[in-house]
UniProtKB/TrEMBL annotation:
PROSITE patterns documented for this protein: ADH_SHORT (PS00061)
Ranges where the Ketoreductase domain occurs: 12-198
Pfam families on file: adh_short_C2
Originating organism: Rhodococcus pseudokoreensis
Protein name from the UniProt record: SDR family oxidoreductase
Keywords for this protein: Oxidoreductase
NCBIfam families, A to Z: PRK07231.1 (NF005559)
Family membership: Belongs to the short-chain dehydrogenases/reductases (SDR) family.
Length: 255
């Protein structure tokens, strides 16, 4: 293999949910630098437009801003339709949209909060994977990447609905890999703590103590997700599917 060629995404189109900030933004920019045209999807259209303009300016690639609420089951076929109308193809789907609202205690978790967490983190990824995966299977194939969390394997009481949703995301990754192979590869990145905008809400003193146990002794920078995403999106992972790839500073290697 020649790495420069095989990591290239020239001629590919990628749709990234939650693509306007955090890890999603870095994946969008990384894919565009690798040659892909990109669809940036999130609930905030203005934020998507800003990243789309940044993509065009920095990489010269085509970029579509798409207002999309992944928790709205019936609207998701429209996201695929708009992508195909604009680009005529879709080769890579990244299910990155997610949220983990704070709550005072487990008994204070409302049904509305629980349902919202499941809708965005799990149900939307299931629906998009089903419709996009079927399109890829019936066409030229493709790659689906789910952005999961180490909370799926190392849950804590302060994020339990989120952890449950991400555990479900890991499971459907394996199921969709079976359903849509061999033409569609489906994998997940199980992300550890990253210094995105969400980290502003952390108790940094407590976080620093926790990170001392990690083999790498630190949280990740958002751009450090790109290598894993590019690997799973590109031909370099042509024999990789149904895999949960931990990018977590070593968190899952410890108890």
């Amino acid at each position: 293999m020649t790495p420069q060629r095989d990591f290239s995404l020239e001629g590919k189109v990628a749709l990234v949910t939650g693509g306007s900030r955090g890890l999603g933004r870095e994946i969008v920019l990384g894919f565009a630098h690798a040659g892909a045209d990109v669809v940036i999807a999130s609930r905030n259209l203005d934020s998507c437009e800003k990243i789309a303009a940044e993509v065009r300016e920095r990489t010269g690639r085509r970029a579509l801003a798409l207002q999309c609420h992944v928790g709205d089951w019936d609207s998701l076929p429209g996201a695929l339709a708009k992508t195909l109308d604009e680009f005529g193809r879709l080769d890579i789907l990244v299910n990155n949209a997610g949220l983990s609202p704070l709550y005072d205690s487990l008994e204070s978790v409302t049904e509305a909060l629980f349902d919202k967490v499941i809708d965005v983190n799990l149900k939307g990824a299931f629906r998009l994977s089903a419709i996009v995966g079927a399109h890829m299977r019936d066409g030229d194939g493709g790659s689906i990447i789910n952005v999961s969390s180490v909370a799926a394997e190392r849950p804590t009481p302060v994020e339990l609905p989120y952890a449950a949703a991400k555990a479900g995301l890991n499971i459907i990754t394996k199921g969709f890999a079976q359903a849509y192979g061999p033409k569609v590869r489906v994998n997940a990145i199980m992300a550890g703590p990253f210094l995105t905008d969400v980290s502003r809400h952390w108790n940094m003193e407590k976080a620093a103590k926790n990170l001392e146990r990690y083999p790498l002794r630190r949280a990740g920078s958002p751009e450090e997700i790109v290598g894993a995403a590019l690997f799973l999106a590109s031909p370099m992972s042509s024999y990789t599917t149904g895999t949960i790839l931990a990018v977590d500073g070593g968190r899952t290697s410890i108890g």
